[in-house]
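The instructor's notes for this session suggest beginning with a concrete chain rather than abstract definitions. Hand out the sequence below and ask the class to guess, before any prediction is shown, which regions might be ordered.
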Amino acid sequence: MAGEQTIGVDLGGTKCLGVVLDARGQVTAEHRVPTPHGADAIVEAIAEVAARLGPGLPVGVGAPGLVDRDGLLRFAPNLPGVFDLPLRDLLVERLGVDVEIENDATAACWAERQFGAAQGATDAVVVTLGTGIGGGIVADNQLLRGANGFAGEIGHMVVDPHGPPCPCGKRGCWERFASGSGLGRMARDAAMAGRAARVLDLADGDAEAVRGEHVTQACEEGDAEAKEIMAQFAWWLALGLVNLAYLLDPEVFVLGGGLVASGGVLLDPARVAFAELLAGVTHRPVVRIEVAALGERAGAIGAALLARGR
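After discussion, reveal the predicted structure:
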C-alpha cells in the first residue's frame, strides 16, 4: 500500500485511542488516554495522543456524532456539552499537520472494509454496538457520506415512537433497544420483575446495578432466563438490520463493540430473528451477519486510512 505513516485517533465516550499505521496497513504503535469532559479538554486529549505517537505525521480522527465535510463536530449526544466544535481547524492549529475528521463508525467501517470482516465486499454496513449505536456504510465500493457527511447515524432510526427517551432528545431510537445501554435496561426490567435470578446474582443482588455484561455472562453459563433476555434484545437488533437491508441491500452486516465479543451468544439469535423478519428471505441471497475483526482499534485504523487517502 502506497503512502507514509499516518496516525488515527478514535474518540470515544470513555477513551481516546490512537495508533500509527505504516505503509502496509500495520499498526506499529498505540497510545490511549481517558476521554475528558468538555470541548477544550477533548481537543487537548486528541492532540496529546497524536503528539505522543508521532509529531509531524498526518492525523485522522474518528469522532462520535454528526461530523460535517469541513471537520466540524456539530452534534455529539454521547459527549455532553460538545456541539459545533471546529475540531479539524483546532487540531490543525494545535498540531501543524494535515488533519481529517470523520464519524467514528464510518472510520471503523472503512477499516473493516479494507482489512477486516467486510474485506472485498462491494456493499456492506458496519454496526457498532456500544453505549449507543453507530453505523458506517460502503455502497458500490465507496464510503457513503451523504450530502452533509452525516450518513450512517443509524442508531437514531425510530423503531418505537412511544419508546424510552434517547440522549438525542427523541424517543424510541433503535439504540435505546439494541445497544449495550438497551440490553442493560431490558435486564434491569426483567430483574425487577423477578425474571432474571442469575443475572441479579451477578450484580450482587442490586437490580439497579444490572448491566449487559451480566446477561452475557449468564447466557454463557446456560441460564435460561438470561437467554430469554438476549433473545428479546437480538430481536430488536434484527429489526433494525432488516430495515437497513431493505434500504441498502448489503452483502454483509459487520457487528462491532463489546456486546459481540462472545460471538454466538448474541449472533445466533440475531441471525434467526433476522431471517424471520426479512420479507422474501427465501428469494434473496443470504445477507451475512459477521463479527468485526479489528476490535477496538477499528475506528483508529480507519481514521488513519482516511487521513492517508486525503
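Then share the key points. The chain has two domains: 6-110+297-309, 119-292. The chain has a mean pLDDT of 94.
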